[in-house]
Amino acid sequence: MSRRFEEIDWQQTPMGEISLRRRVEPSLLVDVYEVKLGEEFLMSSLFTVAEIELARLGLAAVDGDDLDVVVGGLGLGYTAAAALEDARVRTVTVVEALGPVISWHERQLLPATAALTDDPRTALVEGDFFALAREGKGFGVAPELVHAVLLDVDHTPHHVLHPSHAYLYTREGLARLAAGLHPGGVFALWSDDPPEDAFTALLAEVFADVAAHEVTFANPLTGGTSSNTVYVANTTPGRRPAD
Hints:
Helix content is 21%, strand content 37%.
């Protein structure tokens, strides 16, 4: 354990000032890595259970081997790292809009996910996931059709980081995304809110099978529990997403 607080990196981006910070959490006496965009906390290494479950639940709903996976949003790297733990995965293409975030991983500033960039299956692509999804022409170096898209960028489908993201969470936007999946492919989405019936119903207009998983985890800051949601939507009828 090192100093109580350290700002590891700070850079200006088109979305505002972004910083990577490390602090000691006094209740646990562990180093915690946090990302802030402006004055808003985006993510913390204290709360990674749902980010990991995004990959596990999403890939559990995909059959077969040699899977090509796209991860929307790199963040602290936990979703991408969890995807690589699945031996069936052939490639993981991570699309991240902010160059500084990619640079943190290239410089291996995050100890828990430092191995991410050493894995030859990983490709980090600087780009706008939402613009690429809207264009429907693929995600950078990823194959034209992929087996899974795992998305963790916005707070919820209704609380987006940028207005341009909202299109994805419409019927047309979801249909464009689904067109880039193999038959039996999966779209999985992290959300900070409890499961929403309206959004589940919207997914069901596009995908054959849909499930909303509430992921609960211990919250050391409150002494209680917190939860996020992982939506899993499969393109093939009869292939129920994993419970």
